[in-house]
């Protein structure tokens, strides 16, 4: 049998496009060829189940091998194999997908979707790395003859009698000079681990050494020996292909360790399993993230029928869940022709919505089932919930029942519970409810204590998302505003009708203001004399809530760059009712007045963490001298 011909294509110079541009990463060739081999194996299994193949299946693993001397990589299977006509049909006609035809023919078979191939272009990825490709194949059909197909990367091919003795196909790549990096055991092992780790047919890649039990010694202790065994690189039935009812917690944790060997155990997980209106399986894990807001986009892996596609899943998984770990597998997710990138499609949006709902349902279930356990995990999962509420209205609607607010005493409240708790004491004179919060409890302790003395409660808002979450609460909670506990003196955080009168007369107030202006000598500080409780600090330094918020948003890239470039400005509240102010007025001379005023001001700066460098050193020296 000898025949020569021309590959049937409809676009001139398509090979350079395939070889250089179709696949962005050349290592994809191995994924495509192994997937094709698995595809052919799945087909023969299906035909056997349908009674259309009566022969012995035998060993149906796929094998990958390489030869450094010959500079070849070979992918072998014992699948359907091909006749000469099949080769002409499926190999010589670019973009004719054998899997598509097969699935159409056997579409009523419930497992037809297991067939992987889709575009009919995967085979030609071989020419990205090979100068010549050879196929040796023998069809499963009775009386079939072995076929050899060779092509040097041009549109010329040759078909001749092949040498294959048993059913299946060998694809042999003769690597080009630029691709000899792939003639390395560990390089190939890494690619197989990345793309083929969960394919449904065993993939053999050489051998490996294992220790096996070898009887006992004279003392009755076990002996071990090293043996060479086949190196099967994949798990053919990963847990996402199984029913949740067949799995235990240990199975989910073991799979997590397989995916992330060095990660801490996850908090909990969600098993996805839906077949209408789209097919989707997978397992998503909630990791321990604390306040780490560094999004890593390589944590959720996307598969299509157990073939790894990508770890860029931002369109499928809502952005607020990008910190989740795990896998998603769906044959209904639209991929571009190289199976490397997602394409816009209604199914993607439906899957995104479904995952959002499943996560919300799971969190709600955990909250209702055991609130104490849920509260114990809040420091980890709060980031997900808050970010979800800020970015997804539908999630926010569900999450309002299980989102928690934590105060400085370590108590947890739902949104409705907290509203009822603080309403009696924290409603201002215009009937506006004011939530107070701290973003650094240790640093703001003096302000927290001042607020607590007035029976005010203070929330802890110290996660990276809280700036946005605060704005979300102000938008969604009726007649509610939030103020940081150090945004003003305690008397002014929540404006009431009743307030302390300033005991200083107008002349004394003017004198005190002039003393502090000279002592501070910095126009960034705006000074005012206030009538406050004598128990409050003599001097308090604060930044306006609005201005501070805008500057923090600018630092996070929130589109407030104008505010970010503005210099910091602070309010200095002088407590006219504090004994220290009276002491300053009665000081012997201006020098003593200035020293006492500067000391009081530096104490206020110290309370805010604003006293640093030379000013801090001078404060310490001055304090020692005043003892």
Automatic annotation (TrEMBL):
Report keywords, A-Z: ATP-binding, Chaperone, Nucleotide-binding
| Pfam families (alphabetical) | HATPase_c_3, HSP90
Q: Which residues form a coiled coil?
A: none
- Does the record's keyword annotation contain Transferase? no
Q: Does the keyword Nucleotide-binding apply?
A: yes
Tell me the domain of life.
Bacteria
- Which InterPro entries would you find in this protein's record? HATPase_C_sf, Heat_shock_protein_90_CS, HSP90_C, Hsp90_fam, Hsp90_N, Ribosomal_Su5_D2-typ_SF
The record's similarity note reads: Belongs to the heat shock protein 90 family.
Q: Matching NCBIfam families, A to Z?
A: PRK05218.1
Q: What is this protein called?
A: Molecular chaperone HtpG
Q: What species does this protein belong to?
A: Mariniradius sediminis
